[in-house]
Amino acid sequence: MQDKFIRFFDIFFSSLALLVLSPLLVPVMIILKLTGEGEVFYLQERIGKDGKPFKLIKFATMLKNSPNIGTGTVTVKDDPRVLPFGKFLRKTKINELPQLINILKGEMSIIGPRPQTPRCFAAFPLKSQEIIKKVKPGLSGIGSIVFRDEESILDDPKIDRLKFYDEVIAPYKGKLEEWYVKHQNLYTYFMLIFLTIWVVLFPNSKIYKLIFKDLPQPPNDLKKWL
Length: 226
Known about the structure:
Strand content: 5-15%
Largest sheet: 2 strands, antiparallel
Helix content: 40-55%
Shape: globular
Structural class: mainly alpha
Strand order of the largest sheet: 1-2
Order of helices and strands: HEEHHEHHEHHHHH
Distance between the termini: 35 Å
Oligomer: single chain
Number of helices: 10
Number of strands: 4
Radius of gyration: 17 Å
């Protein structure tokens, strides 16, 4: 029954958002078509529920060949592969809004573990992978909120970016997403929607720590950022 309620709210909120945001989305589509490489949408393979791949929809913000350049599917701060207008879209998270279509199609939920590329998903511990695959991935979620400034973390010149992602970030993300699957209910669903809006308005806020006091603690290598 709980899953049916969540699905109802997924359809309701995503439909409402597409309707309300259409005056914003249409101009963005026109600007993208006329600038950069002329691409409006970017479709990327992600891992969904039950481990099934699906095409995640985003506004195009990077060079077409970006997955084969530099750090691949891992994006860092001031990434040279990001197009000029794409920087604005990524900073405001507008680039994520086309995923509302994925939600209407039933491939995603408003809230859930962030859908990962096969390469990044493979970096998660096997235990985390098996648990994460039990639920639909989300437009936002606890992992997205905690790691909302992940690009800045990976911008640290003292670290090997890909190694740090695989050995430090991915395992902790996995624990956070395990926590979500264990606590998935309507309260968590609505609270994470509220927190998503809150951290967009107040990017430096750590209010999630006050609301969810039983979150897994970050490893020492991440504490200075989180």
